[in-house]
Amino acid sequence: MRIGVLGASSIIGQAVVDRLRSMGHDVQIWGRQQSGGEDLHLLFDLDAPTPLTGPTCESAVLLSWIGDPRTPEVMQRNKSSYQFLADELQRSSTFPVFVSTATSSQTSRSVHARAKFATEQLFDGWGAIVRPGRILFRDGRIAGRAARKSWLMSQIGSVIRTDLKIPTVQIDAVAAKIVTLAISRTPGTWDLQDELVLVGSHRKFAPLVPRRIIHYFVLGVAFVIFRQKSNILDRWYALIDAQRLEQDN
Fold first, then answer.
1. Which helix (H) or strand (E) segment is 185 a member of?
2. Is 189 helix (H, G, I), strand (E, B) or coil?
3. Whole-structure pTM over 0.85, yes or no?
4. In the chain, at which end, N or C, are there fewer CB atoms within 10 A of the end residue's CB?
5. Which pLDDT score, from 0 to 100, does residue 216 have?
6. Helix, strand, or coil here: 217?
7. What pLDDT shows up at residue 11?
8. Which domains does the chain have, with CATH numbers?
């Protein structure tokens, strides 16, 4: 099969491309620039989407996302670009596999989680939606910029904290599920509950005091130190979503 991959330079994208190629499939790399020594087959940028050209793919794995800063404007740009892309894929009869997030929710206070949910709806009923948790490497390291940027929140959390178990999924399990859906072209939504691993004892900022107090405290710290209050607050809201998800499981 010919399968397009948007976001092939991401952690999940690299694993998906390797798995597809090892199975003998023709992988078409979509992106805004060449990366990792890969040949760029199709220029596509979420900041400035253009009509799809070149060979038609039977399926497309959609991993790209503008994640920083996590502001309503940036999240709306993600959704608008994916609306354009969804129309293009329908026109070419290409089956989409959209990789979302475990905390995707219509009612979340996190604009990131709400934007992911809204984007999922573009593919609901005719594409596949995958909701992984945090990604765990074989050596136990947690992948992703959010994990690497959590040092300050961890330090604050050492004073006001809980030991938070965050739903985490093995990278191999995520890649295998995405590849299976792309090949089988099976529509539906998959929360990777069966593959989840609960990773504990992470010192994360979690509400042990009234949320209003924490809200204004985080707001003040973010504004004074980072001047990125929307981005920091959104990551905090997403963390609360992760805590609720862990409690539900």
1. none
2. strand
3. no
4. C
5. 74
6. helix
7. 83
8. 2-248 (3.40.50.720)
